[in-house]
Amino acid sequence: MNFFTTYFGRFLGMLRRIAASSPVEVPLFGLMMLALMLGIATPRRLFAQDAATGAGSNAPAATEAMPLIRDEEVVLAVGNIKITAAEFKEILGSLPPQFAALYGQMGAKAFAEQYASLLGLSQEAEKREFDKTDQFRRMFEFERRVVLAQVMANQITSTAGSVSDEEVNYYYTTHESEFEQLKVRGIFIPVVTSTTRATVSAAPPGTPRTGAKPQYNEQMGQRRALQIRSLVISGMADMAALAKTDSDHPTSAKGGDFGFVRRGELPPAVSTTVFGMQVNQVSAPLRDKSATKGGFYIFRVEAKRLQPLAEVKEGIRSSLSMEKLNTYLLQIRENYPVTYHPTFYNVLEPAKPAASTAPAPASGGR
């Protein structure tokens, strides 16, 4: 097996070149080649800290259903390479979930057939001594660095990026404002730009729309928003009904119901004000000068709550994990400082095609 694992790794780079230049398209074989070229089907003993335990294995469940085959029994022979049942299961065990799923679709025999084709090509390449060329050695060194980086990345993810339940709970309790939610109802009155002619609807607020939507300039839009707010505060009109007739927002069909929202989910220009309001309070017209569609919002806070830990636990864990990984990667960069030559890479920039100087074809018919 030592010969096989060494042999396998040495040909990763060459297989990439073959795949890139081959005009033949064989879907399943192409997928296998891609998986192997990326180093993801390399036997697990190259990556695992304890191959004997099988910890962290992604091996498909089908590999467990071989009780009658001894581990030392050869299950695939291609030329001089013989692979035992245990070695074949190690290859399957190193597949990530997406390729394990592919294996499940192909079946064990089809997988072995594609793998045998790969091994046949690599043996022929060795026979022709492709692995003794300078080009191969350079490619092999690059692939070696890729695999080492992948092993290091896996190690960082499994150790430096791990987050305990205690860390999640601590973050939740010390950042409660991030998980505060408001149930709000809103009405949006859009304002057109100065280049667009505004039109005024003579109908009072609450009148069902007919024809084109009215368009307001800055002054008209604010006046309309103030009229609507006055009706809501006085109790003369229901805010949900007004949202259906006057709001130009996707929530208008639901009576302006935005549901529960967190900080940052409302337009930035209005979020701070709304999250400072009390339950049942109605805001003054809040101007949102969005570049896409600005206008005036009127919000009413209908309920407040703290989002339960169970709903945000995994999101917190993911965020903390990314923070840890970024910190670790920054530390690695500091340990291995990078210096770039100031002009060398400019010389290597691909030349841009020159603008055509040929005269334009004459227009017109004969």
Tell me about this structure.
The protein has 366 residues and is α+β, with helices and mostly antiparallel strands. Helices cover 46% and strands 11% of the residues. It contains 13 helices and 6 strands. The chain has helices at residues 2-10, 12-21, 27-37, 85-93, 97-106, 108-127, 134-158, 165-174, 218-234, 239-246, 268-275, 309-335, 344-348, and strands at 74-78, 81-84, 180-190, 257-262, 286-288, 295-306. The chain has a 4-stranded antiparallel sheet, with helices on both faces. The relative contact order is 0.09.
In short:
With 366 residues, the chain is of the alpha+beta class. Helix content is 46%, strand content 11%. The strands form 2 sheets. The protein has a 4-stranded antiparallel sheet, sandwiched between helices. It has a two-stranded antiparallel sheet with strand order 1-2.
Shape: elongated
Order of helices and strands: HHHEEHHHHHEHHEHEEHH
Which secondary-structure class do the elements indicate?
alpha+beta
The protein's oligomeric status is: single chain
What is the helix content? Answer: 40-55%
Give the biggest sheet. Answer: 4 strands, antiparallel
Q: How much strand?
A: 5-15%
Q: Count of helices?
A: 13
Measure the end-to-end span.
Answer: 77 Å
Average pLDDT works out at 77
Identify the strand order in the major beta sheet.
Answer: 4-3-6-5
Q: Got a strand count?
A: 6
Poorly predicted segments: 1-63
Q: What is the CA-atom radius of gyration, in angstroms?
A: 33 Å
